[in-house]
Amino acid sequence: MSKVSLMTAQQLKNISPVNIDGLGSIATCSMAAFQDRLYLARICEAGKKSYNGKILRYDSENDSWEEVYAGALEGENNYKGVGSGNSASGIPLAIAFLEETHSLIVSLLSPSSSQLLHSEDGKTFHTLPEPQLDNHVLSFRRLLPFQNRLYAIPADNTAKNLICACDDPETGKWQAVNLPGFDNLDNQAVSQIVTFNNCLYAGTVNPETGFQIWKTQDTNQTSYTWKQIISDGARGYAFNSCVSSMVVFQGNLYFASGMPADSYDRGNDIPITAPEIIRIYPDDSWDLIVGAPKFTPDGLKVPLSVMGAGFDDSHNCTLQFMTVHNDCLYVGTQGKGGFQLWATEDGEIWEPIRLEPLSDRRDIEIYTVVTTPLGLVTVLGKTNLQNTDNPSKPKTHDVEVWLGK
To answer: Is this model's pTM higher than 0.70 or not?
Structure first.
């Protein structure tokens, strides 16, 4: 039996936070492992157009959660919900481990100012100075430590088509490391950044001509030179407009692409297009793994998995995450029929993973799957589609956390 098949049979334990006051309805969340514990950063409804940021910590020995941070977010927010894909360029919350200082940093989205939190022990968090970059008010939704610098993607309501970097977040001094949209304003946002082959790679959102992939090896403090690796949505053009996830697996870079989840063919009740997966090699050549065959300047590209877009399921509208755990690559899709989890040992032969008792549920969205020393952690959102007391109230999301043992 393969490692992937073993994953299907493994025991899942529900470790969802309970008995913690004031969690409210979730708007967005993110998770990371730090000092052998799990950290769940959440943004929750606190009232009409008001939200609180909370950080919870899970102790596996006592099988319990504790709240280690809570604070109101400044300004009036209008979050659309995690997993819904309504924001083309991603989730407005980030959490990262700074290896150089063995500390944790969390970014909570706020439209009026940045709220960056830093902790060395995982229990006491202090607010970092507001990031300074020209006239921009920065709030980050993705953080990436690389070569003694911290890189960040600003949120949609700030400098969203820039990548920012700093040497020390305690100073509040940040630098833009690319021209806006890589000198192409059709690149409306930078959606993903990742380190691969000792370089920094970035994926964009471009609804006009399709996503682009860029990379740089120059990470000094004075200038960055960027090289375009893929353009025109890998010949999917506007029907392949955004990069939704990137991860390094077995020495190659894998990324998922497609369209925002709200790009929907209402007449036929299916997404306009389903997501694809592409593999980039260290020499920057690439192959199609999952998706529709394409004519390219390098010849015909056919899916090496022999599977079309959305893993041959046209109802899969987004690929929510990609993560590596125990030498396997896991990806999660979301569609009309619920979520699907797929895994591969070699990047080309894929198996669907049934997570009992989750796979048959239609009331949940998959947020992310995180590899941790405790096991593979699946973070889900339980969607309350109806409110009998107030039918006009939007659907809400309650988080569920499941640990694969």
So the answer is: yes
Contact 291, 350 (CB under 8 A): no
* 71 contacts 53 by C-beta, under 8 angstroms: yes
Burial of 292: CB neighbours in 10 Å, binned 0-12, 13-18, 19+: middle
Burial class (CB in 10 A: 0-12, 13-18, 19+), 273: buried
Identity of residue 58: Y
CA-wise closest residue to 227 among 255, 256, 208, 200: 200
Residue 337's pLDDT is 73
Query: Angle CA(287)–CA(291)–CA(293) in degrees, nearest 5?
Result: 70
Q: pLDDT tens, 81-140?
A: 333 333 333 344 677 878 777 899 998 866 555 688 999 999 999 999 988 787 776 788
Amino acid at residue number 59: D
- H or E stretch including 165? strand 164-166
The span from the CA of 257 to the CA of 127, in Å, is 35
Q: Which residue has the higher pLDDT, 78 or 365?
A: 365
Give dist(CA 321, CA 318) in Å, integer: 9
